[in-house]
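seq:
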Amino acid sequence: MTGTEPAHEPHRPSWTCVVCPAGTPWPCPPARTQLAEAYVDDPVGLSTDLAAMLPYAADEAAISDPAELHERFVAWTWTPADPDSRPQKADQW
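struct:
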């Protein structure tokens, strides 16, 4: 966590940020920064841990759109340095 920034954690069961304005979905941008800093040496762990939270958020906050869940919890955790390093489709193996 950077400086004196409060921990941006999820308020359950709504899965909104406890620090940001009411209704801000968690992980909010500051939470993403804090999580990325906390997992700087374990990016796979970051993705894994957030993916593990996804079904709880889906159930507790009644989020039924899989694309929204993926974008919110997992997609932002993976930013390849080399675009050519992206996983290939199974038919390209």
